[in-house]
């Protein structure tokens, strides 16, 4: 039957996610999970949801309670919120809605590797635009005819951000929608939510968010999009009716409600990020200013792949990434202070 | 931005799932949930899984523990098992793997309405083949060139089944894969799993299963496919890396392990099905022999839509379905005995 696969699928090597060792001995700094527990309210809400009726019945297809909570906490229109089985589901839904076979998807590079996979799966072309030297977008954007443009902001692997005005200008120049992938925006100074609101709306902007990073809920799979309600009505046709389960909806709603708890985690993570960045710089790493919960570590004096391998032998997992045209580096999650210390101790002996 | 949607998406009206009232007053017999609680082991396993590390970390992308359990319980190769966020996710993955834009998807009719939506989303054509008068497949299958053929078995809305030999012959005639959608097979006398096994394998057969019906877990969203491991390796490229969350994997694995519990529910549901079928027949409904947890109720003497509406006014929700070319009917879930009695009491006054 392999011969009957779509050629685009057959040719794919498949997206390779970060390693997820089941062995608890690893210090896991490779997939940007939050090192701290989810809010106690999440546990309470999940325990309350473990009833026969909640489990045996279908969940709410559009997540009304979550959308109302998001509306309240984020100041957006609940009808402009689309729920997703993680933000990767959101990115897939948007791709299937706007990109025909043979269409064009564009993203700055280096950035999130999944965008290319989404293009491959859709049978679309994928083209990249290199970031400027300061990790801003180039002054002139060359591919405004794209069916869909993804900008991860903060960007992965760099952790850097592009200003809101620059995104607004890009959205105005583009023919198709601009997806601002804000998986890490909760750690940043600013975000693009304002661009989705009626006052000063950029109609082509779709903001994507996840609960896997800031909200410490990678295990339950939940993300959402914020966009013009007219766009969300169309995206609802593309999403699977029951893409989000009752427990992830419950967990996400409870987490969103407990902003104070997560703000206290954010203070800790940003403090550790500052300390890690300074210490890694002292060890000779070149690190762009991060507004995310990870840092992108490169070196001018030696290859970094051996460092990744040595760290792995010592049960510290970081993400090694190698981008054609812009070279390689280690993307290291900001963990707890103890995890950062452990990493730094090992690196001192390696560089 | 609406003007930039793919024309296929813009033209869609969108799949309309069964109503999911949040009001607990309804006797809910419209979307074929199991009326009994999930296994106590499911609750135990879920409670144990509510730890900070399980929630904050990414889940296992391929669901190794679940696949090993499925291998043991179902006697299949764990490498031939693909995990899905509900079986609708499985059907989407298979569609995206095998069907190009402009391709052809075929299904018998009347059957599961989602198949047409999947074709629309993929920009593919959808053609149907009417069931024979006895709800078997027609002797000669006219559309063997399809990129993908879906046969729901037991079928919805009829509850009827097609024999394994007939499916095997169909698979041999088809050019593309045959997806045997076994959402309800756990309630039936037979299934097509044997066709996926090395001895006597039909290489094009992909069996799809769900935990939403038999396993009382519609709320957590979990399904899986069983196929040739070489096919599953390709389907893994198409599925989202983290399509299944840690709690649904936990619940499904625990449920699958407790076969005794679910066999005892099955005995009850099949007994109620028999009683409901007899009583509904006495009230003048024409009902094909069901091997699922629902019955398809039609009448020769009057339209059934007013019955659906009257029942809804009385807080009993059944599924009204109307198929072009084969008419309408009520698809009624087999609930508890008390729910069946409530339904029958109301119907006595209505027909």
Could you estimate the helical fraction of the residues of chain A in percent?
25-40%
Radius of gyration of chain A: 20 Å
Estimate what percentage of residues of chain A fall within beta strands. 15-25%
- Output the CATH topology of the largest domain in chain A: Aspartate Aminotransferase, domain 2
Can you tell me the CATH architecture of the largest domain in chain A?
3-Layer(aba) Sandwich
Described by strand count, sense and barrel closure, the largest sheet of chain A is:
7 strands, mixed
Biggest contact: A-B, 83 and 83 residues
Strand order of the largest sheet of chain A: 2-8-7-6-5-3-4
Q: Give the tally of β-strands of chain A.
A: 11
- The top level CATH class name of the largest domain in chain A: Alpha Beta
Give the count of helical stretches of chain A: 12
Report, as a whole number of angstroms, the end-to-end distance of chain A: 50 Å
What class, by secondary structure content of chain A?
alpha/beta
Helix and strand pattern of chain A: HEHHHEHEHEEHEEEHHHEHEEH
Quaternary organisation: homodimer
Total number of domains of chain A? 2
Question: What's the CATH H-level homologous superfamily of the largest domain in chain A?
Answer: Type I PLP-dependent aspartate aminotransferase-like (Major domain)
Overall mean confidence score, pLDDT of chain A: 96
Extract low-pLDDT stretches of chain A. Answer: none
Tell me, what's the shape of chain A? Answer: globular
